[in-house]
Amino acid sequence: MTPPVTTRRRALALALGAPALAAPRLARGQGTDWPSQVVRYINLYAPGGANDILSRAWCQAMTELTGQQFVVENRTGAGGTVGSDAIAKSRADGYTVGLGGVANLAIAPSLFPNLPYDPARDYSFISGLYRQSNILIINNAVPARSVPELIALLKANPGRYNYATGGAGTTPHLTAELFKTRTGTEMPFVQYRGGAPALIDLMAGQVQVLVDNIAGPIGAVRDGKVRALAVASLERSPMLPDLPTLAEFLPGFDLSSWNGLIAPAGLPPAQVQRIAELSLKALANPTLVKVYTENGASPWRVGPEEFATYVRAQEPRMRELVKLSGAAAG
What is the CATH number of domain 134-248? Predict the structure, then answer.
């Protein structure tokens, strides 16, 4: 029997060791040629809101950058957990990505005891997308024109002034509770179903203090219908650059909304890097930056490792704040 001919390629592989024969090859679309088809982007929120506008701006920038369509699919419900579950259970081929942020990755595990997904196990973390400041505003009749004056007023009148947010367990709600803890003040919480009705009641004097994402009340602030005192991010907002941060009065105070790009767990590392590189380029698109700024957001240009590390650090922090606030799903 004639022995098999050992080709030069096989001999080289044998010389390098048996594992070389089994070295995996990335399928088409999993490496440097991604994307080679339409990409589905799952947004957790309803069409027309700030998160939807910001998501579509990123998808448009990615379409322009890659020549492939990025199609937004709105999967709403249960504080973003419905869409999050859909992302987690999608095929890990790089052609389903979606929104992963403070609500579904860091807060939801403390609000929903039977969460259908595990933020630490079920996702590939790709890149940051954007951050949004929360803003502290008051009714114009409240006799305070700065954060120190508001703190003094609240301490002199414990329980007299109410504060509102657009929902329990949201970053505005947790911001207000952290503010109360840091300042030793008392303000009863009035919960609304969304920031818009809360703002209406603030202007009418039904509540005296409101914390919300900056994009919601920015028009009322600029029109002088309410008084803005500070933003809750470490840096001042480009939308209101003259408005101070809470950290300028309460060192280290930082509680903003943040969102990044996630995909189902199991994406090959080379594909994660490829998507991240393109995402970071898209976040520098001037049109995207303009849309972000107009909607109270700033591009968050962090890669896979930094994004994953940040998420892991935020979940226990949010758990403590949810416990402090007494928030529960419902």
Answer: 3.40.190.10
Query: So what's the pLDDT on residue 3?
Result: 41
39-131+256-325 and 134-248 in the same fold: yes
Beta bridge partners of residue 264, listed in sequence order: 123
pLDDT digits (tens, 9 = 90+) for 124-146: 999 999 999 999 999 999 999 99
Q: Model confidence over 20-47: pLDDT tens digits?
A: 333 334 444 456 789 999 999 999 999 9
Three-class SS of the chain = CCCCCCCHHHHHHHHHCHHHHHCCCCCCCCCCCCCCCCEEEEECCCCCCHHHHHHHHHHHHHHHHHCCCEEEEECCCHHHHHHHHHHHCCCCCCCEEEEEEHHHHHHHHHHCCCCCCCCCCCEEEEEEEEEECEEEEECCCCCCCCHHHHHHHHHHCCCCCCEEECCCCCHHHHHHHHHHHHHCCCCCEEECCCHHHHHHHHHHCCCCEEEEECCCCHHHHHCCCCEEEEECCCCCCCCCCCCCEHHHCCCCCCCCEEEEEEEECCCCHHHHHHHHHHHHHHCCCHHHHHHHHHCCEEECCCCHHHHHHHHHHHHHHHHHHHHHHCCCCC
- Residue in this structure with the two tokens 């028009």, named with its chain if needed: 219
Indicate if the pLDDT at residue 294 is higher than 70: yes
In the chain, where the domains are located:
39-131+256-325, 134-248
What CATH code would you report for 39-131+256-325? 3.40.190.150
- pTM tops 0.85, yes or no: yes
What share of the chain in percent tops pLDDT 90? 84
User: 233-256 pLDDT, tens per residue?
Assistant: 999 998 999 999 999 999 999 999
Whole-angstrom Cα distance, residue 52 to residue 56?
6
Phi/psi-derived region of residue 117, left when phi > 0, alpha when psi is between -120 and 50, beta in every other case? beta
Alpha carbon distance 185, 156 (integer Å)? 9
71 token code pair: 């199609």
